[in-house]
Every structure is written in C-alpha cells, then in structure tokens.
Specification:
The protein contains 10 helices and 11 strands. Strand 7, helix 6 and strand 8 form a beta-alpha-beta unit. The model has no long low-confidence stretch (mean pLDDT 90). The protein has a single domain, classed as Vaccinia Virus protein VP39 (Rossmann fold, 3-Layer(aba) Sandwich). A 7-stranded mixed sheet has the order 6-5-4-7-8-11-10, with helices on both faces. It is of the alpha/beta class. The protein is 39% helix and 21% strand. It binds zinc ion (ZN). The site of zinc ion has 8 residues, from loops.
Length: 279
C-alpha cells in the first residue's frame, strides 16, 4: 500500500486531472503523482534535458528579456528576506536556474551560491561568476538563508529535502519557499490546462495547509504561508518594456506565443509563498 511521503498516512484518495492519476492525502492535504519517478532518473533528466528555454539563436535575447522582466519580482523577494535576515549573510538558492535571484541578492551584500543540476543553466551561472554546486554538502559555506523558488515541487521527497536543508542551515537560519498554489481558483478552474500543472516536472502539489504542515514537520516555524500573485502590474509593465527594448535593439522578433505566454502566466499563475525559521 502506498503511503504519503510527507506524513506517512495510508489514507490517500485517487483522482485524475486530465489523464494524469494523482493521490491526495486526507491527513496533510498534499497531492502527489500516483507514480513518482526514481530520483536517479530524475537527476539525469534535469542534468541533460530540462531547459526552461529552447536552444535557438535567440536564446540570449529571450534569457535577457526574462531576467529584466523579473527584476521587480526579485527586488520584492529580497526585501521580504531582508526584513527577517539582513546582509551580511549567506544565501543558497536551491534550483537556482540561471542565478537571476542570486545575481540581484549579491548586489545587496549577500554572499551567494546556487544548487542546480542543469548543466545548461550552470554554463550561464559560471559566466556571471556565481558558484553553483550539485548539492549543499559540496559547498564549504553554511547558508543562513535557503531559498527555493518553484523547485520543491520537483523533488521526489519534499520532507527529506527540507530536513536536509534544516541540518545545513546555521542556527536560526531561515528558509523561503515559493511553489504553485494547487488550491487556487485558476488551478481548480483550468484543471490540467492550468499554467503550473506540469506533471512531467512537478511530482508534488501543495495547498496552504500542506505547506504549513510540511515546514513544521521538517523542524521549521513558519512566519507566514500566503497565497499570492507573484507578478504584479509592475512586473507586467517591466515585461512589456523588456520585450520592446530587446526586440528593437537586437533585431530579434518574438513569436505570438513568446509574446503572449508571460501574460497568460501573469493572469493565472498563483503561488504560495512561505518564510520559516529553523527551530
Ligand atoms: Zn500526508
């Protein structure tokens, strides 16, 4: 019999989104894929294949548009973190992708490093001189702050991931997490068409209840777990400016899909945001 990977309860209820079989735990409210891939296979997949952007000659432009458009979001996150722990402090970003967040955080005086299995993303972080490792153990620095921006749902065991982070954090260290809000109105309305329902990458889906439960179980005290739209009107304006600036000066044009997909995400992408303290 299958057990919940978060609370170990056997009372799991099967349901489907589209043709994807899922299990919801009646104890802690976590939703998981009925079949979670093997961890080794998954790491190989992220190292070799998983890329947030396609490999085309436009890649630098699309990467830079994405970085620019997300600046307001990064600044807002840095200010939320600064309220709890101001620099000097060490930040580790698990699933740092191309290091956009760390790149900004270091300008505020934080010492930064990332954890990222994707070889492709690591090439980018090397170029901008952000140290990236494949696990927390590899770094000689102990983080005071760990951030996970839309990466916890990709793991095969969120509880053991958070427990491992707990053991690496310095005393009174903090963790900041953002994950898709599976319980939000857009998720319920759009079902398998929701922008962040990605069963090929997301093994777990969280609600406010389950994220709160998970953090507490892993030894953290949540300051807050809230549902939010990460992309404010400022972000939308910033995307618009980035799109028109880059297409004008680099001579690159965007396809209708490339132009519209950020807007679809702004509209329907609701996430959970939590900051919690190690106890
Ligand atoms: Zn459970």
């Amino acid at each position: 019999m299958q057990h919940c990977r978060i609370c170990d309860s056997a009372s799991l209820f099967s349901f489907q989104r589209g043709n994807i079989p899922l299990l919801r735990c009646s104890q802690c409210d976590t939703v998981q894929l009925a079949t979670i891939p093997d961890e080794h296979e998954l790491l190989q997949y992220y190292a070799d294949e998983y890329e947030l952007l396609d490999q085309s000659n436009k890649e630098l432009t699309t990467t830079e548009i994405r970085r620019w458009s997300r600046l307001p979001e990064q600044l807002s996150l840095i200010h939320d973190i600064k309220k709890r722990k101001s620099p000097p402090a060490v930040i580790a970003d698990i699933g740092c992708d191309r290091g956009y967040f760390l790149d900004e955080a270091r300008r505020y005086g934080y010492t930064v490093f990332g954890i990222e299995p994707s070889n492709h993303a690591q090439k980018y972080t090397n170029a901008i001189n952000i140290p990236v490792f494949s696990s927390l153990q590899e770094s000689s620095l102990r983080p005071d702050i760990v951030v996970m921006w839309h990466s916890l749902e990709h793991t095969t065991n969120p509880l053991s991931t958070l427990q491992e982070i707990h053991s690496h954090l310095t005393d009174e260290g903090i963790i900041a997490i953002r994950v898709p809000d599976f319980g939000c109105v857009w998720s319920r309305l759009l079902q398998q068409h929701w922008v962040w329902f990605q069963p090929q990458n997301h093994n777990f889906h969280f609600s406010r209840t389950s994220l709160n439960f998970l953090l507490t179980k892993a030894g953290f005290h949540p300051y807050f777990v809230r549902s939010q739209r990460p992309n404010s009107f400022i972000t939308m304006r910033s995307t618009r400016i980035a799109q028109s600036t880059f297409t004008r000066y680099t001579g690159t044009s965007l396809t209708a899909k490339e132009y519209l997909s950020p807007w679809y995400q702004f509209l329907t992408g609701i996430e959970l945001f939590a900051i919690a303290k190690k106890i």
